[in-house]
TrEMBL record:
UniProt xrefs under Pfam families: DAO
Region of interest (Disordered), ranges: 385-413
Family stated for the protein in its record: Belongs to the FAD-dependent glycerol-3-phosphate dehydrogenase family.
Segments forming domain FAD dependent oxidoreductase: 23-369
Alphabetical list of InterPro entries matching this protein: FAD-dep_OxRdtase, FAD/NAD-bd_sf, G3P_DH_FAD-dep
The protein's name in its UniProt record: Glycerol-3-phosphate dehydrogenase/oxidase
Cofactor annotation: FAD
UniProt xrefs under Gene3D superfamilies: D-Amino Acid Oxidase, subunit A, domain 2, FAD/NAD(P)-binding domain
Keywords on record: FAD, Flavoprotein, Oxidoreductase
Length: 502
């Protein structure tokens, strides 16, 4: 059975108010912090995880949601990262089959380009072999006729063939939530809407944190602190010499499946710059993404997709041969914590996606990396923390993956208003704001977009466990739409195909 996150947060907050002390405090409830908290609690250390916003409200909510080896890293010659990520993908597929699903990808190419075909065939075989993936998923070439059979609703330019390979897809927020549920199961405490304002120092070492929660401030001692705040990891301490965090923004568009029906993923090369962009089924809709550019705005403000990014992605639609012009339902933009040397001006898509771990007495910092490789990143960060010698000896519990009793408890169900899921998560999902429920515990807000507007009273009925007054509902509803518009509202522009015919 999955633990109830509402109860876990309530108990943890009581402990915080008593200013209990901890073996380890982890800052940041994205996938990196969640993975560290889970492993730390499993190893027997008294662990507290603190998150300033909602659970999984940072980059881990705005990724492409692929659990993948990163074909791109192979193309860049980074075999080690590809092998590590591809093996992590295989292990996640086995651990949580309800959350991480294999997905066929069709890499589009022109049938006359024999060099491309040769290079892709060799690369995909290597990709398959490095992952030690199952035989049924070995790569295959498809002629234009065979490709057309797989995508009957699309009409590709004449001569478009494909190479098929397999990767996996998940819901990033769901991955964080399940990891947190496992952390709680091993005894971890956690609180969201709890912002760490300062690190405590004792002589030359970090000895805990100061946290703001419910308009109070608490000082919590800890033997070790791990800073897993992603793109914001430089807020407490600077990076090792000559390195800086370079926030790269990536944006995605979400379409209704009826407008863009996809039985599998497409790997496309953008006509403007040759970058690889994916178009894939997710949460009952179809996603097109991602862009990849330097984020020059304030990274502490919510991230928005620009008009140029939207136009860039929409310019791909003509390659799919849709019969009519379509409009996205929603979009999202995330910031990738990429490490760069001072003065480095490498193209965003060429910049390394490796993670970085650095330390000082009492503190380990970790940033960068991938959703897919979170488990090995957690082990690495904890090994460094343990080496400092402050933590008690390990007393590990067996590593037991948790699975839900009912599909509605699998985080983030798709499709139209899912009554059971809304009921379950409104009671057990540690909901503080309506947007926590509609945008991150379930994806109802994304997949329904503006169609959610007339459903307010139905949602109120289903979410009775929240026990909100009608004034609170009005307030939450208004807040929800502000957040939706800001983080997920698309620009009001014609799509590329419509522009051309206008
Ligand atoms: C566009 C895009 C697409 C991507 N696609 C993929 C993909 O398909 N597959 C893949 O494997 N990887 C992908 N990635 C990479 C992956 O999403 C990230 O590496 C990963 O989500 C980072 O997780 P994190 O926990 O380190 O950071 P975050 O998820 O950002 O978590 C950090 C958390 O720290 C919190 N925080 C910050 N300051 C404080 C404070 N003072 N007190 C308390 N909490 C604080 C933040 O609120 C945040 O929730 C993608 C990234 C981007 C941007």
């Amino acid at each position: 059975m999955l633990p109830n996150l509402s109860e876990a947060v309530a108990t943890s907050r009581q402990a915080i108010a008593k200013t209990e002390s901890y073996d380890l405090i982890v800052i940041g409830a994205g996938i990196t912090g969640a993975g560290i908290a889970r492993e730390s609690a499993r190893l027997g250390w008294k662990t507290l995880l603190l998150e300033q916003g909602d659970l999984a409200s940072g980059t881990s909510n705005f990724s492409s949601k692929m659990v993948h080896g990163g074909l791109r890293y192979l193309i860049q010659g980074n075999w080690r990262l590809t092998r590590e990520a591809a093996q992590a993908r295989e292990s996640l597929l086995q651990r949580w089959p309800d959350l991480v699903k294999p997905l066929p990808y069709y890499y589009l190419q022109n049938e006359r380009s024999l060099i491309t075909r040769f290079k892709l065939t060799a690369g995909l075989w290597l990709y398959h072999t490095l992952a030690a993936a199952e035989d049924a998923h070995r790569p295959r070439y498809l002629s234009p006729a065979a490709l057309a059979e797989h995508f009957p609703a699309l009409s590709f330019p004449t001569g478009t063939a494909a190479s098929r390979y397999y990767d996996a897809i998940c819901d990033d927020s769901a991955l964080v939530l399940r990891t947190l549920q496992e952390a709680v199961n091993y005894g971890a405490q956690l609180s969201h809407y709890a912002s760490v304002s300062e690190l405590l120092t004792e002589g030359d070492r970090i000895a805990g944190v100061t946290v703001r929660l419910d308009q109070s401030q608490y000082t919590l001692p800890a033997k070790m602190v791990i800073n897993a705040t992603g793109v914001w990891a430089d807020q407490f301490t600077s990076l090792p010499a000559n390195l800086r965090l370079r926030p790269l923004r990536g944006s995605h568009l979400l379409f209704a499946a009826a407008d863009l029906p996809l039985p599998a993923a497409l790997t496309l090369q953008h006509p403007e710059d040759g970058r690889v962009v994916f178009c894939y089924p997710w949460a009952g809709g179809s996603v097109l993404g991602t862009t990849d550019l330097d984020h020059l705005a304030d990274k502490c403000q919510p991230t928005q997709m620009s008009q140029e990014e939207q136009n860039y992605l929409l310019a791909l639609l003509p390659q799919l041969g849709l019969k009519r012009s379509i409009k996205p339902i929603a979009c999202w933009s995330g910031l990738r914590p990429v490490l760069a040397e001072q003065g480095d001006s490498q193209a965003p898509s060429q910049a390394s996606r490796e993670h970085l771990i650095w330390q000082q007495p009492g503190l380990v910092n970790i940033t960068g990396g991938k959703l897919t490789t979170f488990a090995s990143m957690a082990e690495e960060a904890l090994a460094m923390a343990e080496q400092q010698g402050n933590l008690p000896p390990r007393s590990p519990q067996a590593d037991t993956p948790l699975r839900p009793d009912k599909p509605s408890q699998a985080a983030c169900p798709a499709g139209p208003l899912d009554a059971e899921a809304l009921r379950y998560w409104s009671g057990a999902g540690a909901i503080e704001r309506l947007s926590d429920l509609l945008l991150r515990r379930t994806r109802q807000g994304l997949i329904l977009g503006r169609q959610l507007e007339p459903l307010q009273s139905q949602i109120e009925q289903l979410c009775q466990p929240l026990a909100w007054s009608s004034a609170r509902w009005q307030q939450e509803w208004a807040h929800y739409w502000r957040e939706f518009e800001h983080n997920h509202g698309c620009h009001d522009s014609l799509d590329a195909s419509a522009k051309r015919s206008a």
